[in-house]
Design goal:
The chain has about 600 residues and is an alpha/beta fold. About 20% of the residues lie in helices and about 30% in strands.
Length: about 600
């Protein structure tokens, strides 16, 4: 086992954008992987398991350990006359797997020819093309469970496959490393899925029913015509998913945009459920084309003329060129068609980006009817909306506390999407904006993570959201109950910090080297220990005078002194604390402590 330092990862990606990893290791057996998982580099760093890198965009060098599966065996297993499988290690190139199936005359994979990447990623991404997805042929797979350091067998159902999605991209992201996958195929079978253009005319063009080799050749030909050769133009293939929306919502989009947006009906997940709504899949390439974005570029990144779903590196693109161009595409499509596009590509960024949405108390600043110097201040830093933050890391956007000012905070920050919500407690100034999450729920449910008592109160106060028969258009929220134990959101470790808001126990949260605490009055030594070795701490500091439920500035400074973060910011400040420009001198703040303000952006590396 060799763990390399300062490793060039460029050959392990398809964007051809230079990137390095602090540490890198490959394994050719499960025994080697177990040894790696016991190493100091694994235990003390963020860990990323990669395949062929065809769905990754590294925004920065990776400040952790990257692991790659170099196991490359393929075998055929005939259980009986009707059950035949191809079992392939996760490190096998997908194109090699398809070629093996063709040589063995095994049907099922031919529509997926010429897709870049490796076998393991096919299960993570649920890759698909021309009417077939990986979930249609995956029977079971073997994974390394990073929590138990044991190999486990998972069935197709356990993987919770969905369109370009699986449980490995959500709840189990980072927990399981896929080792090998078993695909159920048909010996001597004929291709079954020829109803997707251009395969729907292949039989007529050939003059006979096509073989699996002929289908694979046609798919390869079409993909080569539409998609760039990554050796010439770096890309990740299709950058965006095709949106899946309710049929009624699609009809509304057509009306609002004045366009007949191409869409394809989706089969019902539960055909026997009369209340399941009809859904359609919308053609993203058409949306991007009609928005006039073909050939658009930022820096060295460009929307590919032959296939607008693709963003290419013309040779000198930076990762932020690609991300900025993708955001431009999302913005312009939203402006013209009122619909959100979501990337298939995973952004890899170990930096943590924090935006202070609000730094004020339950009454906000200025307070209604107050004429004090703070409330009448012209300094925009003294306009403090109710306390909230937005956290982004590895392409995942997490909102903490949608308070009653969330709507204007989201508009101010031009917020396009959120992936999850963390709630600290049930008080109105921290949950009063839940209804304004509706715009982010048109195409997906938003997961919400909170304590059991908070979830119970949310169900009561937002009964129209959680009742069985909901009014159309209400926020689509999935409540997740958490306790005072670490959990994960799309592979990101979240550590709750239990603090006391007066006598009420509530949660703060730690993500990596960053922690956010609001409305605390006391913090136990056990919870203080969870806050050691922070780079940035945001903590509430109401004012100088005592308060029964909130930390005062002196009390907050004592906690900061004990925790010793590199940097600390004060939030949840009332007008009594003073004007922003005067706070450091009035309260004699140490050099590493500053007052936060609405709109402040922080990057924790």
């Amino acid at each position: 086992m060799i763990i390399e330092e300062d490793k060039d990862l460029t050959p392990f990606t398809t964007f051809n954008i230079p990137v390095k990893a602090r540490y890198f290791a490959q394994y050719t057996s499960e025994r080697e992987l177990i040894r790696i998982s016991r190493s100091e580099e694994y235990i003390n760093n963020e860990v990323l398991h990669i395949g062929g890198g065809s769905n990754l965009l590294f925004l920065t060098d990776y400040n952790g350990l990257v692991i790659h599966n170099a196991m490359k065996e393929i075998m055929r297993y005939d259980k009986d006359e009707e059950n035949c499988f191809i079992i392939a290690d996760a490190g096998v190139k997908w194109t090699d797997l398809v070629e093996f199936a063709l040589q063995e005359n095994l049907a099922g994979l031919e529509n997926l020819a010429h897709i870049p990447g490796e076998v393991g990623a096919s299960a993570v991404q649920n890759v698909g093309a021309y009417g077939v997805e990986a979930k249609d042929v995956i029977s079971y797979l073997y994974c390394f469970d990073t929590q138990t350091r044991q190999t486990v067998r998972l069935t197709n159902t356990q993987c919770r496959f969905a369109y370009r999605d699986s449980i490995f991209k959500n709840e189990w992201k980072g927990r399981f490393f896929i080792l090998r996958v078993a695909f159920k195929v048909v010996p001597g079978g004929k291709p079954e899925h020829l109803d997707y253009r251009p395969l729907d005319t292949l039989e007529d063009r050939l003059g006979h029913y096509p073989s699996i080799r002929e289908v694979a050749d046609e798919v390869t030909r079409v993909r080569e015509e539409k998609l760039p050769d990554p050796k010439v133009l770096g890309s990740a293939g299709s950058f965006f998913k095709n949106p899946e929306v309710r049929k009624r919502y699609w009809q509304e989009l057509c009306y609002l945009s004045g366009e007949q947006i191409p869409a394809f009906p989706l089969p019902k997940k539960n055909p026997d459920d009369p209340e399941e709504v009809e859904r359609v899949k919308i053609n993203s390439a058409w949306l991007i084309d009609q928005a006039g974005l073909k050939g658009s570029h930022i820096g060295g990144a460009k929307v590919y003329e032959k296939q607008p779903l693709v963003i290419v590196n013309e040779g000198n693109a930076s990762p932020h060129d690609v991300k900025s161009l993708a955001e431009k595409v999302i913005r312009e499509v939203k402006r013209k068609f009122f619909i959100d596009l979501y990337p298939e590509v995973n952004y890899i960024d170990t930096d943590i980006h924090v935006t202070i949405l609000g730094s004020g108390t339950s009454k906000g600043i200025p307070e209604v009817g107050c004429l004090c110097p703070v409330c009448k201040s012209e300094d925009p830093r003294d306009k403090r909306l109710r306390a909230s933050v937005l956290i982004e890391t590895n392409g995942v956007k997490i909102l903490v506390d949608p308070g009653p000012d969330f709507r204007q905070q989201a508009i101010r920050e031009e917020m396009m999407d959120i992936d999850a919500v963390l709630v600290t407690h049930i008080h109105y100034d921290h949950v009063g904006g839940f209804d304004d999450i509706r715009p982010f729920c048109a195409q997906k449910n938003i997961p919400v993570y909170t304590r059991e008592d908070v979830a119970r109160d949310l169900r009561k106060h937002l009964d129209y959201v959680f009742r069985d028969h909901r009014y159309p258009g209400v926020p689509a929220l999935d409540l997740n109950i958490i306790d005072n134990s670490p959990f994960h959101i799309k592979g990101i470790k979240i550590t709750p910090i239990e603090v006391n808001h007066g006598k009420l126990p509530i949660f703060g949260y730690r993500i990596g080297d960053f922690a956010y605490i609001t409305d605390a009055k006391t913090i136990s030594e056990r919870e203080i220990d969870k806050l050691r070795d922070l780079k940035v701490l945001i903590i509430n500091a109401l004012r100088k005078r005592d308060h029964f439920a909130h930390l005062t500035v002196p009390e907050a400074l004592e906690i900061i002194k004990e925790i010793k973060p590199e940097k600390a910011y004060l939030t949840h400040m009332c007008h009594d604390i003073g004007c922003h420009k005067d706070i450091p001198s009035i309260h004699d703040l140490p050099d590493n402590v500053e007052p936060a303000y609405d709109g402040l952006s922080l990057t924790i590396k």
